[in-house]
Specification:
With 152 residues, this protein is an alpha+beta fold. It has 7 helices and 4 strands, in the order H-H-H-H-E-H-H-E-E-E-H. The chain has a 4-stranded mixed sheet with strand order 2-1-3-4, covered by helices on one side.
Length: 152
């Protein structure tokens, strides 16, 4: 496991030091650097801001925008909303799981992919929908999904 470089967070901690109401903003900026909130960075934040780790974790786990574990380079989101479901979304999800070898909420061991299911992606007319790193792919089938994942 590679060592985490904490030097990049020092300007953020300096910028907000003493601002008790800036915790969410600091967490957002830390996550922007690493893609998640690594524990050593949170420990440094705790010491610098004199905020308990339990307080930091309570905020970080309350909001869905924060991640406490490293995520894949490519985040694959599969819609499980009604419109996608009735058009075969369950089979599309099964294809993703089979192709990547992971389930919802997991990351591949090589950190290339993270799989998430989403209640609705708001693209019902395109269903079933898969989003890969922010790009939408509609009218997916298991075969189209497997072909897509092989091109990434």
């Amino acid at each position: 496991m590679e060592e985490l470089d904490l030097s990049a967070i020092e300007p953020i901690l300096d910028k907000y030091c003493g601002q008790e109401d800036a915790l969410i903003t600091v967490l957002q900026e830390l996550q922007e650097i690493y893609g998640y909130l690594p524990e050593p960075a949170l420990q440094r934040l705790s010491r610098r801001f004199n905020v308990s780790m339990s307080r930091i974790y309570s905020v970080a786990t309350f909001y869905a925008q924060f991640y406490l574990s490293r995520r894949g380079k490519n985040v694959v989101r599969v819609c499980r909303g009604t419109a996608c479901h009735v058009r075969g979304g369950k089979d599309v999800l099964s294809a993703v799981e089979s192709c990547l070898g992971i389930c919802d909420g997991q990351t591949t061991p090589d950190y290339r992919y993270t799989l998430e299911t989403v209640a609705c992606l708001g693209a019902c007319a395109m269903g079933p929908v898969v989003v890969v790193s922010g790009k939408y792919f509609g009218k997916m089938t298991p075969n189209k999904t497997e072909a897509l994942l092989k091109t990434i």
